[in-house]
Amino acid sequence: MSDFDSKRSNSRTLKTLLAPSVFIQSIYTKPVIIQSIYTKPVIIQSIYTKPVIIQSIYTKPVIIQSIYTKPVIIQSIYTKPVIIQSIYTKPVIIQSIYTKPVIIQSIYTKPVIIQSIYTKPVIIQSIYTKPVIIQSIYTKPVIIQSIYTKPVIIQSIYTKPVIIQSIYTKPVIIQSIYTKPVIIQSIYTKPVIIQSIYTKPVIIQSIYTKPVHSQCLPC
User: Fold this and answer.
1) 217, burial (CB in 10 Å: exposed 0-12, middle 13-18, buried 19+)
2) 156 and 77: one domain?
3) E strand spans, 29-171
4) Mean local confidence (pLDDT), 108-115
C-alpha cells in the first residue's frame, strides 16, 4: 500500500471511529498493534490470524465478537456496558478493568491468563479447554457459569454476593475470599484444593468424584 493510500485509509478509519455509531468488520492476517479510543457505541467483529496487541478504551456501549487464532495481548478499560463474545484458539493474556455491567461469553481452547477487576455486576459464561490462570477482584454481584476441562488456578476476592455454577473435569486450585453471601454449585471430577475464607453466610452444593483437600476458615 502506498503512502497516499495509507493516509487515506487512516483518515477513513478516523472518520469511522468518530461517527455516531460504528460497525467494524476486520480480518487481520499479519501482526497488528491496535490502540483505539471509542467514544460512541461500536459493534466489532474481528478475525485475527496473526499475533495482535490490543489496547483499547471504551467509553460507550460495545458489542465485541472476535475469533483469535494467534496469540493476543488484550489490555482494555470498559467504562460502559459491554457484551463480549470471543473464541480463543491460541494463548491469550487479558488484562481488563470493567467499570460498568458486562456480559462475557468466551471459549478458551488454549492457555489463558486473565487478570480482571470488576466494579459493576457481571455475567460470565466461559468454557475452558486449556489451562487457565484467573486472578479476579469482584466488587459487585457476579454470576459465574464455567466449565473447566483443563487444570485451572483461580484466585478471587468477592466483596459482593456471587452465584457460582462450575463443572471441573481437571485438577483445580481455588483460593477465594468471600466477604458477602455466596451460593456455590460445583461438580468436581478431578482432585481439587480449596482454600477459602467465608465471612458471610454461604450455601455450598458440591459433588466430589475425586479426592479433595479443603482448608477453610471457619471449616
Assistant:
1) exposed
2) no
3) 32-38, 42-48, 52-58, 62-68, 72-78, 82-88, 92-98, 102-108, 112-118, 122-128, 132-138, 142-148, 152-158, 162-168
4) 86
Task: Kindly indicate the confidence band of residue 219, based on its pLDDT and cuts at 50, 70 and 90.
Answer: very low
Domain presence at residue 28:
yes
Whether the pLDDT of residue 57 is over 70: the answer is yes
- Structural domain for 63, as ranges: 20-96
Burial of 14 (C-beta count, 10 Å sphere; 0-12/13-18/19+): exposed
Is 101 within a domain? Answer: no
- Chain centroid to Cα 23, Å, comes to 22
In this prediction the pTM is 0.71
Residue 10 forms part of a structural domain: no
* CA 23/CA 45 separation, integer angstroms: 8
Supply 107's cell numbers: 471459549
DSSP bridge partners of 136: 116, 156
In a domain, 109, yes or no: no
Residue 153 neighbours by CB under 8 Å, 6+ apart: 132, 133, 134, 172, 173
Contact 206, 187 (CB under 8 A): yes
